[in-house]
């Protein structure tokens, strides 16, 4: 399985990255995990626009789903005719949320182009991947993912506050893409996001092979995030996500 970072900017696009999006490929199958604002443009640098087989959406905040609007246009109005519908797996209400975002009548909304399916807890198969999801503490219904293929596992936190459930989901994963929205400091809200240090603590508790910090908010200093994660109890490799980073599992 190959994981390519398309967007790793937290909460809004930054100068060097769109908001959240990751391309997961195996056996000739390509799945997008989130498609936040700005990601559709950058995706085209790394993968043919129409050769996406499915999309999974962690939650319905704009920085994780909004570029499905542009992707709906690209597929629906392709001059040579629309390609076949593809599944979009998201939380309950994804179809209506996206229809509203594009100001479409929810019936039919985008359903001629996307086959909306409500995310299940799993494990279940999406293409060649074994997918398990878990509900995370966040102001809206938000899921973390475990994606397995060929004996390897990727864990992705989505957006989350501190969570034992995330530790369980990520246990033993070869690669852990974990959000690190906050820097250490007083008065941080709970059940919203993780600090980089907390990302390291979750990685240590889960015993993952490699930690990649993502959802990096442009107003933070990335080097400070990396330093704080390295100061946690996690003693494996810690890296910062960047656009175009590839991980072969
Ligand atoms: Zn976010
Ligand atoms: Zn969010």
What does this structure look like?
The chain is an alpha/beta fold and 249 residues long. The chain has a single domain (2-248), classed as Ribonuclease Z/Hydroxyacylglutathione hydrolase-like (Metallo-beta-lactamase, Chain A, 4-Layer Sandwich), CATH 3.60.15.10. The protein contains 7 helices and 14 strands. A 7-stranded mixed beta sheet has the order 6-5-4-3-2-1-14. Strands 7-8-9-10-11-12-13 form a 7-stranded mixed beta sheet. Helix 5 (164-170) packs across helix 6 and helix 6 (196-206) runs parallel beside helix 7. One zinc ion binds at residues 59, 61, 138, 159.
- Rg from Cα: 17 Å
- How far is the N terminus from the C terminus? 5 Å
Envelope shape: globular
**Lateral strand order in the biggest sheet:** 6-5-4-3-2-1-14
Quickly count the domains: 1
CATH topology, anyone? Answer: Metallo-beta-lactamase, Chain A
Number of helices: 7
- Overall mean pLDDT: 98
Which regions are unreliable across 5 or more consecutive residues at pLDDT < 50?
none
Layout of helices and strands:
Layout lengths: L1 E6 L13 E6 L2 E5 L5 H8 L7 E3 L5 H4 L2 H9 L9 E5 L3 H8 L12 E5 L5 E3 L2 E8 L5 E8 L2 E5 L7 H7 L4 E5 L16 H11 L3 E5 L7 H9 L6 E4 L5 E3 L1
Parallel strand pairs: 3-4, 4-5, 5-6, 10-11, 11-12, 12-13
Antiparallel strand pairs: 1-2, 1-14, 2-3, 7-8, 8-9, 9-10
The structure holds zinc ion (2 copies).
One zinc ion binds next to helix 2.
């Amino acid at each position: 399985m190959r994981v390519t970072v398309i967007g790793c900017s937290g909460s809004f696009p930054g100068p060097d990255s769109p908001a959240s999006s990751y391309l997961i490929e195996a056996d000739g199958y390509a799945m997008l995990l989130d498609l936040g604002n700005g990601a559709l443009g950058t995706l085209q640098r790394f993968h043919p626009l129409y050769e996406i087989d499915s999309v999974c959406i962690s939650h319905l905040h704009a920085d994780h789903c909004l570029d499905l609007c542009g992707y709906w246009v690209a597929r629906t109005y392709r001059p040579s005719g629309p390609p076949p519908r593809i599944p979009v797996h998201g939380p309950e209400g994804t179809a209506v949320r996206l229809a509203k975002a594009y100001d479409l009548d929810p019936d039919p909304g985008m359903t001629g182009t996307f086959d909306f399916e409500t995310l299940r807890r799993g494990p279940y198969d999406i293409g060649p991947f074994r997918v398990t999801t878990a509900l995370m503490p966040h102001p809206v219904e938000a899921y973390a993912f475990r994606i397995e293929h060929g004996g390897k596992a990727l864990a992705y936190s989505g957006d989350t506050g501190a969570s034992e459930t995330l530790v369980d989901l990520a246990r033993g994963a070869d690669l852990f893409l974990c959000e690190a929205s906050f820097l250490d400091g007083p008065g941080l809200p709970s059940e919203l996001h993780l600090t980089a240090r907390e990302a390291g603590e979750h990685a240590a508790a889960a015993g993952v092979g490699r930690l990649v910090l993502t959802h990096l908010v442009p107003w933070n200093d990335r080097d400070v995030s990396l330093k704080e994660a390295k100061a946690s109890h996690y003693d494996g490799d810690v890296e910062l996500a960047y656009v175009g980073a590839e991980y072969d599992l």
